Amino acid sequence: MTRRIALVTGGIGGLGTEICKHLQRAGNLVVAADLGSRPERLAEFEQEIAGTPDIAFEPFNVADFEDCAALVRRVESRHGPIDIVVNAAGITRDTTLRKMSPQQWVDVLKINLDGVFNVCRNVVDSMCDRGFGRIVNISSVNGQTGQFGQTNYSAAKAGMHGFTMALAREVARKGVTVNSVSPGYCNTAMVRAVPEAVRAQIVANIPVGRLGEPSEIARVVTFLAAEDSGFITGANIPVNGGYFMDF
Q1: 153 catalytically annotated
Q2: How far apart are CA 78 and CA 80, in angstroms?
Q3: Is 58 helix (H, G, I), strand (E, B) or coil?
Q4: How many CB atoms lie within 10 A of CB 46?
Q5: Measuring CA to CA, which residue among 229, 221, 174, 217 is closest to residue 6?
Q6: Where are the alpha helices (DSSP H) in 26-81?
Q7: Within a domain: residue 68?
Q8: What is the pTM of this model?
Q9: Ramachandran region, residue 120 (left: φ > 0; alpha: ψ -120 to 50; beta: rest)
């Protein structure tokens, strides 16, 4: 098995950390890229991966195209060409559209959707030139169903899968696959911050009767990133406990 270099944006978040660990166990060298301005979370991340080889951290701003380009150059210089990209960086700024400020709209789209362009644009040429690449975009069940108070987030996540399908068509003949994973509600800090009564109602509407675990998302990402997953591209894989089912 060829040792691959994997870049995970949002890599020190709850979901991102789990994805990093699963990709490392699959034999990859993993770079977790995230804001360097969260020292407490970074310390937690470093504690979680303590003693684990082949996981490194790089600070960057996913919303800045040139900063993404600089990140790719650093990773390639230190570790080698990037073979796997997981776009997991994301934020929420929830409120109804009637109360949403232009900045709340721009902030979410800039991180959750523009960030996918910023990273992919800086790695896709190299992947195509080398004849191998795996891009996995972390979308959301709310990009499929919509969600009250999340017009910005739902639009960004739905747009992410449109991006996925279009790019998949462009690079399919070059050995590069592009897929989306749409998690449902998972046991992450973002969901745990939801008021308990609201969270209980969410769980009541999930057929399996519980929140998902980050590891359950990470396993699907690792499968899509594998060398022998080359016939899957342009797909959206829902991992939501039956919360939303589509034909």
Answers
A1: yes
A2: 6
A3: strand
A4: 13
A5: 221
A6: 39-48, 65-78
A7: yes
A8: 0.96
A9: alpha
CATH code: domain of residue 172: 3.40.50.720
Domains: count for the chain: 1
Amino acid at 1: M
Q: Which residue has the tokens 């342009």?
A: 234
Of 45, 153, 185, 243, the active-site residue reads: 153
Q: What is the pLDDT along the chain (247 residues), one digit of tens a residue?
A: 678 999 999 999 999 999 999 999 999 999 999 999 989 999 999 999 998 999 999 999 999 999 999 999 999 999 999 999 999 999 999 999 999 999 999 999 999 999 999 999 999 999 999 999 999 999 999 999 999 999 999 999 999 999 999 999 999 999 999 999 999 999 988 788 888 998 999 999 999 999 999 999 999 999 999 999 999 999 999 999 999 998 7
CA distances from 180 to 98, 138, 193 (A): 30, 6, 25
